[in-house]
Amino acid sequence: MDPQAKLIFTASLILGTTITVSSNHWIMAWAGLEINTLAILPLISKSHHPRAIEAATKYFLVQATASTLILFSSMTNAWQTGQWDIAQLTSPTSCLILTAAIAMKLGLAPFHFWFPEVLQGTSLITGLLLSTAMKFPPITLLFMTSQSLNPTLLAVLAILSTALGGWMGLNQTQTRKILAFSSISHLGWMAIITIYSPKLALLNFYLYALVTSAVFLILNSINTLKLTTLMTSWTKTPALSAALMLTLLSLAGLPPLTGFLPKWLIIQELTKQEMAPAATIIALLSLLSLFFYLRLAYCATITLPPHTTNHMKQWHTNKPTNISIAILAVLSTTLLPISPMILTIV
């Protein structure tokens, strides 16, 4: 892609995100979401492969539908209350429509079917953008309207997302699809705590973005799209494979790594809110995700393929290792000891 075009699309992504995050009016928030959608489409389809074009088409249709529902929800609320302020969402019908629209934007179950297919059709760097930066504006809208939404409905969507994200990721062999279902599962943790502690949900999103960025960049550096390719990475990049194992275990939420912090705090907050059954269910369902994280880590560090693979082995990395990968990998695994300081900042 032409560097000038890439610069324009990246600037549009930043502009759209900034407009949505900083707006108090529904029309401005909707306009920011539309700018974001139109800016990411060329990045998804830049390879001109039929799979990439299909992914861009699916992404456009889903996001356009969700944006339409957000606009319809805000218009219904303005019609009944006379308010266009995002924080003044009081109509029950508008709240229900908005919950469905944001769930569709984010990829929460049962509106999650588009996300793994879109991620599978893109490059790893664009997949990283879809999993982190593109989730930020809808999550911001969810935070700003959290006090108006139905807590029972959000809890059901969250538990369903954690269950399906773990369950459907079990039999995947493509790393991008595994990370897509991982994202769906983590969104469940964010959704269930949003109403009770928005700051905690925001902390969860920041730490998820940090750890998943490290995973995507390491996979992009070793040029790995399938488990069979991942099995041969130990011979050519042992340091990156070890870092990948630790970041995957952090993404799974194992102590004493960084990813344990948000899960620990969310379970503690849910228990304080007398939602111990929901906390127990969501903690048990995260064991499904733990299984495929462990399988990825096992493939990355321990095993070699037991049979002849059909792809050419790459004994040297094609891309130079970036210093940002090392920084992200360290942060993804060592932030738990300074968690009190992180909590005071958030």
UniProtKB/TrEMBL annotation:
The chain crosses the membrane at residues 56-76, 96-115, 152-171, 178-197, 203-225, 237-258, 278-304, 325-345. GO terms for cellular component: mitochondrial inner membrane. InterPro entries: Complex_I_Subunit_2, NADH_DH_su2_C, NADH_UbQ_OxRdtase_chain2, ND/Mrp_TM. It is found in: Mitochondrion inner membrane. It catalyses: a ubiquinone + NADH + 5 H(+)(in) = a ubiquinol + NAD(+) + 4 H(+)(out). GO terms for biological process: mitochondrial electron transport, NADH to ubiquinone. It is a multi-pass membrane protein. The keyword NAD applies. PANTHER family: NADH-UBIQUINONE OXIDOREDUCTASE CHAIN 2. This is NADH-ubiquinone oxidoreductase chain 2.
